[in-house]
Amino acid sequence: MEKPDLFIKNALLVSPGEAPTGKSEHIRIxxxxxxxxxxxxxxxxxxxxxxxxGAFVSPGWMDMHVHLREPGLEHKETxxxxxxxxxAGGFTAVACMPNTDPPIHTRDVVEYVIKKASNLAVExxxxxxxxxxxxxxxxxxxxxxxxxxxxxxxxxxDPVYDSRIMxxxxxxxxxxxxxxxxxxxxxxxxxxxxxHEGRVxxxxxxxxxxxxxxxxxxxxxxxxAELTGGHVHVAHISTKKAIDLVxxxxxxGIYVTTEVCPHHFDLTDEEIEKNHFDTNFKMHPPLxxxxxxxxxxxxxxDGTIDAICTDHxxxxxxxxxxxxxxxxxxxxxxxxxxxxxVKQLIESKAMKLEDVLTRLITAPREILRLPVPRLKAGSVAxxxxxxxxxxxTFTKEKSRSKSKNSPYLNKEMTGRAIAVYNRNRxxxxxx
Length: 431
Hints:
Layout: E1 6-13, E2 24-30, E3 33-38, E4 49-51, E5 56-59, E6 61-66, H1 79-88, E7 91-96, H2 107-116, E8 123-128, H3 142-148, E9 152-153, H4 163-176, E10 180-182, H5 187-190, E11 195-196, H6 199-204, E12 208-209, H7 211-228, E13 232-234, H8 240-251, E14 256-260, H9 270-274, H10 290-302, E15 307-308, H11 317-320, H12 337-347, H13 353-367, E16 383-394, E17 411-422, E18 425-428
Parallel strand pairs: 1-4, 1-5, 6-7, 7-8, 8-9, 10-13, 11-12, 13-14, 14-15
Antiparallel strand pairs: 1-2, 2-3, 5-16, 16-17, 17-18
Helix pairs in contact: 2-3, 4-7, 7-8
């Protein structure tokens, strides 16, 4: 709902890289901007008031890797429903991948997506295709799409497989000052894998996707980034060796960044066996081993992994309720990202809250060359209100996404996004 004026009371302020003071503060928002922050403020007559009741308030979070499915695949998700899920998860901005129908491979589709989201509390930043129709044969109109509002380029869902095309794309991206986000997968090595190749896949008799399929492509892209000076961003990293490759490349000054999804630092391939081939545990990259999970956490701790994203990939019930080998890859993730992050990074004391927020607020926007919201008087109000301790259960009924393909259904969660404020709109995540 549109609420350009709002008084938020009893909030604990926290920003990326800055430890929370523990002091309760009040925030006055006037005309969509932060007018004042102080413990001495009192509500004005008829001023709308929201009592944060000791919850944290930070600058708004961003998920730089989601699939909103529109245009063309609205039976899975729409821009409106995806943004509703994002707001419920605490995100005030998302970047959407281009594997729609038609793909986001021309300026008119970029502008269509932006227009469809223009009246929503969650800002949507389209990622354009690297190649026309995502077919990997010729470069799409990258400069024109950037002028229309595209913030990066990717053929996500598939890799940019041709090395020559990838080299050209990185050259263009360097001139345009944008990243190329690659789905890192050597198809000849990976397909037709249905889960991680290892002891569990052997026991279950399923063809697996080996870690090397991801690592070989990352190694190629690092070398091409070094050659061109372009910025390659590794999408949804998932293996220990992949982390090592990125860490080494960064130490050499090569322009490479990366992201990780909560399910890849929480779940392992053993879940497929434990949950009797539940297709909600099928995604790509697949769930890996416990060693890989721990490597993801270590990569977040030491800064090798820049950002936390969800790879929110909605599919209809009919598409997922089939035999495991026939089900599409992907799970929803926007609404459960925060409690998983709380469990694995904050409750475990692997990371401090302010450092986790850097991965959710600062890094995604810096990678995409977007302004980072600030929690200070005079700034545009772009806020996430959240806690670390609320117990709740994620159910189909509570999900705002149009699709319900989550491995976390009916699981108790700890930590919740309570509300977001952005674009003069205040959206509460009501139980």
